[in-house]
């Protein structure tokens, strides 16, 4: 039984609830019944806001992807030597990942079982290619090492950045966003070796 | 219906099948019926080998963890300056991850819902601490940068290494194991910046 509750949701607040359920149960394992129970409103109230769970998924992964693509339009990502632009993009990726933690977490788990998921994977690949191009340009300008293949380097750098969703929790205790983004930038560009 | 097949499995080959199913369906989503169908033998034949799916999970994650802990007992991980030992451990982690790809993939997805999973998470944490200690020792010896907190650096380095399971496929085409382990060692210690 659904506990009756007045439907005071906006698309944004309903999405918040849905994304949490998707991340807990997996998208495939989530039914409209689960969403209705978590939101405390009836299924038909949910259908008043969206056409179904796939639209909620689309809205959620779009929010993550729009955040990431937005970085590439920012001035520091467009102007100056490629290595500086790349450093800016890496820092901002960590910031967006932390600011949109549940949405990016969901995006990173998408496996491609539905049209929405396949389109999300395609946009993720686009984004990866844009960053790989930046890396390639920085290598051509001599600022990035040439002994690691660009696609492989991009994958490994994304691996480090994306792993933040596995453990970062915005609970006030623990690490701040700035500490994490500084650390990622230092390790991605300088590595562990003592620079002194 | 299970297609009848003579049970010629050994514990090792049955484990191979089970791990593939676990990785495809998720451990929670896998039933004995799924395992029986994938193996082509009856459930009671499977029970002839193991007590149930949790034992298969235990065997699988133990194989991954034994591989990882084995690294720490190797001579190059025990002798010499900490930075050199750390570099050796990072390279060997990538090698073990690739050699035991399905087993490590399963290990990294374990969430702690059963005793077996909780024990696996505990052993993973132990391993993380052993590597963090090595990092701390290398920092004390002045070979590792001091401006990134040790626990955070360990998490980010593990993030890069573990991300290899997301895309590495041993299909003969594409990258070789050596190219990947070289790239990880270069990026973890030297970063992207051109060392020349």
TrEMBL record, chains A, B:
Database matches in Gene3D superfamilies: Homeodomain-like, Tetracycline Repressor, domain 2
Domain spans labelled HTH tetR-type: 8-68
UniProt KW Transcription keyword: yes
Ranges annotated as DNA-binding: 31-50
GO molecular function list: DNA-binding transcription factor activity; transcription cis-regulatory region binding
Keywords: DNA-binding, Transcription, Transcription regulation
Name of the protein this chain belongs to: TetR family transcriptional regulator
Species this protein is from: Streptomyces lacrimifluminis
